[in-house]
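Q: I'm writing up a methods section and want to include an example of the input and output format. Could you take the sequence below and give the corresponding predicted structure tokens, formatted cleanly so I can copy it straight into the document?
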Amino acid sequence: MMGKDKWISIGQFVAPQGLKGDIRIQPSSDFPERFTKPGKRWIQKANELPTEIKLIKGSLIPGKSIYVLSIEGICNRNSAEKIIGWNLVIPID
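A: Here is the clean output for your methods example:
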């Protein structure tokens, strides 16, 4: 397993969106496909090792620099609220 210093944050979860577990993310990366292309990602709580997740879909909110993501296993507002403040991370390499 890679150490904590081998990851780079590409965004922070800021708020739930609706009731089905979608979550808003404030991006800190200029690569939109990191938020829109389905597949493996990792989420990280401060000072902990990242957890692998699966991004189902993501879209940019028109007129804002905020994306809304759907993540496998996060299927209601309550579970989305649990990861507010966490970061979306990717391996540095």
